[in-house]
Design a protein that fits this description.
The structure is a single chain. α2 runs parallel beside α5 and α2 runs antiparallel to α6. β5 and β6 form a beta hairpin. With 448 residues, the protein is an alpha+beta fold. It is globular and about 60 Å long. The N terminus is likely disordered. The protein is 31% helix and 11% strand.
């Protein structure tokens, strides 16, 4: 294939290494599953497993090769059926795009190999950084495809979580219950003095940001208090045993309607067997670890907070507690300016499951708040919406704007399956308030 363009100041070796790391991790994720799952939907309103193996490389080809560089792709049909990974509204919607015409796995693998070669060559030699080009300014299309794959790895993780244990291969040497000791004091609160919080990502400091992270701006945050640790399974059990799922006063009307119609009586990741409670881990069921953060929907988190006569923190309050300091300056990360190795938290695929809260005291913020990055995304009370001055990202214009509907809430932080390359102060995640599958926890806030 001919040279795609001149070299630039872009760190091509670093980008190639990141791309190779992504592809290895994605392949390892698919290797966890038995072949019999390939055309199944572990979550009914997500696409079948086959879709995701084809979607990640097809998105890269569609975005970088075809849209940004204006070159031909590999297979127009496959690049059409694998084009979009957003949840279909119904099973029929996703069937219309693929089944019963999904290709064989051999066809998908052939396509994946060709796409990987094409992307590698583009990273190595294409003119990827063109000032003023909407798709390529600051290598925008390159960073889009790299972060897209890293985000999908977490999506694959929580989809895989729903696959029966008999159809998954537990990695050698992995222990669902970690050896991290539980922290003794779980009901502490931190007082966060008033000050400013920076929301968004500064493209003068970071090479890339999604459109919902821009533009960078500062907001004043009044003094407040916040839980030092995430709410644990043991603490949430008090709400369950107090009849919280039978008391409509703790729930918004739409959320209470969901509780009644779906007959929800406890967190999705819990299972009850007689008088005993269990945690449904990635590879096995274990007795419910009381010191792990509870994973719940926004609706359940908000109901628990009301039961405690508290509330969920706002996005700005999270930012202040995580990155602010008592003296007024801000850090890039809760613990400092860079991510050391080993990482000071449960993220970057260190584990497949949570671990006790407070297990990484070296990751605490300047205000002494723990686990703000890792061990589970954190729900906030802030509806997902644009910052003033929002402009859609040219490389993926539908990424955020379709979800500015008032029915999604901002999540901050990271889960065990969040890649370290996605850990930055301005990164925003979001989900619907009653979507139960994601690795999302919370902490409560209140008046100081």
């Amino acid at each position: 294939m001919p040279q795609l363009g001149p070299t630039t100041m872009l760190d091509r070796a670093g980008a190639l290494e990141r791309f190779a790391t992504n592809r290895r991790r994605t392949r390892a994720l698919f290797d966890l599953l038995d072949e019999s799952v390939y055309y199944e939907r572990p979550i009914s309103l997500r696409n079948p497993v086959i879709f995701y193996e084809g979607h990640i490389p097809a998105f890269s080809v569609n975005t970088l090769i075809k849209k940004a560089l204006g070159r031909p792709g590999i297979d127009e049909h496959l690049e059409n059926i694998f084009a979009r990974g957003i949840d279909p509204e119904s099973e029929a919607t996703s069937i219309a795009r693929g089944n019963p015409a999904w290709p064989s796995r051999a066809e998908v693998h052939q396509y994946v190999e060709a796409a990987d070669r094409l992307i590698e060559q583009a990273i190595a030699s294409a003119d990827l950084d063109r000032p003023g080009d909407p798709m390529l300014d600051q290598a925008r299309a390159l960073w889009t495809i790299l972060e897209h794959e890293e985000m999908h790895q977490e999506t694959l993780g929580y989809i895989w979580h729903q696959v029966p244990y008999s159809l998954k291969r537990k990695p050698s040497g992995y222990h669902t219950v970690s050896l991290s000791p539980p922290h003794a004091a779980l009901s502490l609160h931190a007082r966060i003095c008033s000050g400013f919080a920076t929301l968004g990502t500064d493209l003068r400091e970071d090479v890339f940001a999604w459109d919902n992270e821009c533009p960078l701006h500062r907001v004043h945050v009044n003094e407040f208090s916040i839980d030092v640790y995430n709410v644990t399974n043991g603490q949430f059990m008090e709400f369950v045993q107090a009849g919280g799922y039978r008391a409509p006063q703790w729930w918004r009307p739409d959320d209470w309607a969901w509780i009644e119609s779906a007959q929800v009586s406890h967190p999705f990741f819990w299972e009850r067997d007689g008088d005993r409670w269990f945690w449904r881990g990635m590879f096995e069921r274990v007795p419910l670890p009381e010191t792990w953060p509870v994973y719940v929907t926004w609706a359940e988190a908000a109901a628990y907070a009301r039961w405690r006569r508290l509330r969920l923190p706002t996005e700005a309050e999270y930012q202040r507690a995580a990155f602010g300091t008592p003296e007024g300056r801000e850090r890039s990360l809760p613990w400092g300016e860079a991510i050391p190795s080993p990482v000071p938290g449960n993220f970057d695929f260190t584990r497949w499951d949570p671990e006790p809260v407070g297990a990484h005291p070296d990751g605490a913020s300047a205000f002494g708040v723990h686990d703000l990055i890792g061990n589970g995304w954190e729900w906030t009370s802030t509806p997902f919406g644009p910052f003033d001055g929002f402009a859609p990202l040219p490389t993926y214009p539908e990424y955020s704007a379709e979800f500015f509907d008032g029915d999604h809430f901002v999540m901050k932080g990271a889960s065990p399956l969040t890649a370290r390359t996605l850990v930055r102060r301005g990164f925003r995640n979001w989900f619907r308030p009653r979507y139960p599958y994601v690795y999302a926890t919370f902490r409560c806030a209140g008046e100081a």
